[in-house]
Amino acid sequence: MVNQKYKEMLGEKSVIRQIAETATARRAQIGTDEVFDFSIGNPSVPCAPEFTQAMIDLYETREPHELHGYSPSVGLPSFRGAVADSLNRRFGMDYTLNHIFPTSGATGALAHAFRAVTKPGDEVLTFAPFFPEYMPYVEGTGAHLSVVPPDTKAFQIDFEAFERALNPNVTAVLINTPNNPSGASYSAATLEHLAQVLLAKQVEYGHDIFLISDEPYREIMFDGVTQPYPAKFYDNTLTCYSFSKSLSLPGERIGYVAVNPRATDADIMVPVFAQISRTIGHNCPSSSMQLAVEQVSDKTSDLSIYETNMNLIYDALVDLGFDVVRPGGTFYIFPKSLEPDANEFARKAMEYDLFVVPSDSFGMPGYLRMSYCLETEHAKRGVERLRKFVHEVYGR
Amino acid sequence: MVNQKYKEMLGEKSVIRQIAETATARRAQIGTDEVFDFSIGNPSVPCAPEFTQAMIDLYETREPHELHGYSPSVGLPSFRGAVADSLNRRFGMDYTLNHIFPTSGATGALAHAFRAVTKPGDEVLTFAPFFPEYMPYVEGTGAHLSVVPPDTKAFQIDFEAFERALNPNVTAVLINTPNNPSGASYSAATLEHLAQVLLAKQVEYGHDIFLISDEPYREIMFDGVTQPYPAKFYDNTLTCYSFSKSLSLPGERIGYVAVNPRATDADIMVPVFAQISRTIGHNCPSSSMQLAVEQVSDKTSDLSIYETNMNLIYDALVDLGFDVVRPGGTFYIFPKSLEPDANEFARKAMEYDLFVVPSDSFGMPGYLRMSYCLETEHAKRGVERLRKFVHEVYGR
Fold it and tell me: What class of enzyme is it (chains A, B) (predicted)?
């Protein structure tokens, strides 16, 4: 007699998973080299060598009880302080360790942020296209996720659509920059405009509207550009982060929420997060992982391959006549499908052993998400296969 | 504008925390050696050396992407298989990897177990004395935790009280053996009787009643006795575990739920857990930690110090005329207070730099929880201080 709500979720078919399973089956049939899997966003570069060295040093020099002992429910002070210092140095913030809450990846960070500043029945707004897991993340709290239609020209924000969607029931707005799936990075102008709208609406509605900023791709930016830091633009910001992508440690599940010191209730927010943990069964990340990551919180893996791959795929897509916005970061690109039903495009592509994800679950149909966590030589061959497919099927 | 529900939880004063803070302040004043802190249950022995060696080997031999890559949301198959094999070997079970769900410690395990087999409004029964965190763990799901009065003679189960408490709204029963705070280990006879009652009530009520068995202290058992394995006695059992105590890795937060293969819906339980994770922001434990622990899942740290300490404290308590049940395991002992208000006893003990926890938050007043995660020499001196305190204040 399993809880029916969760049992029903089993019936939801994940298109991404189905595609991944088909790709895996094909790899078994014809070999890894002949399958061009642009479906999975799984960091493909080795972790930062400084991380490995830090961990080995810890095992060599620290006593076991020091390395593996309980950390407080709000995390190790040394880790929290290192994150605060790093953010202050890089983005001109003034966090103290009391504003940093270590979490089990960005997933854990978001779980705390939503619960802290919304209540069941509230409305959370996000912008299409968006990471599909935001839906269970928000709905699991009892709040409701509403989706603002996209700005398809640049994947910034359609502010007219945003203002239409805002209403007094909205207590949080969720952004993800640079964005999965579009690869777009919100500009300073976009963040400035967003802050102005939110400030005005806070006054109009007479309550706070928190900006929850999900930034796991913050360090994967292209053309030498740095992602403007959203909390710098708006006081009521909770910044959610994971080291999965920057340090290439996706399985280690270490991240944090950073509370803007000027946010409402900033001083009690981290203790509130600790209370939330008690009700959802969250534990802060592995002690040894906190101790290693605190030493390398400014470092990244060599992330240059993502930009190399993005450029070659972007150029090919443009050349083939796709309608596509050049990504500012991440390891995703989001061209418009060559036929209205992106599922149909993806299905046909599979016949060429090309795996791409149709965009329906990202809150807007008709597009394709392509990930490029691939060796560059393999990505090049994938692009050649794409050319062949598009030529033979769509006559381009 | 923080969520009021969680903000109100901040106001709840944790007696354990207040005592710990006082002890910490005293240590700063008079030095660690003169403070006898029996309040904190924090594993004090080094982790199993086989674990350390396994982790160092992994860092030396595995590629970073293999060591730190994403594990599936239901965990690494190798870890799940190793846990299943270990439980089968040790307890005569027949788990497959499909019945094992890796979690962030026992906290994460319980968060999934409750949600999988109860729904909001249901009643969960547990037995006094109980770990106080069970209250937010259960209430956080929307179900209600009811407490069955204790069997104070042996801290087994008062079956008359249990039968009075059972009602058709009960869908889960939560046990913890060996028990925090009493140290009692449920005997085979207790577990047999418990299973008989539950089986009869399932028929009477026409619905499943799941046994959720929280077993983080399973390997800390005394007098050469092994904890009888609860799932062996009752099909509808979800076993929740953490390696925190057995391997002495409390900060690493790695545990699991094991689903009895004969439980209702056993085959979909782990996929259901994965759905629950999506709604509460749970990530399965660190990949590298899974890879290391799977190699040592049958090992333990040298846990003998807990038995040594228990014996010397138990003997002293008996000698001083305390009413006390001899623990079967854990690193706790639970004597009756020498005056009706255990808080008053604990307050007076603090004046002797003796720190013990009054039992009110464990669901029964008038007792004291003493932890003995201490160096044995320090525990001996603590016992002498206890003798002095009891002699001077209570004339014994």
Answer: transferase
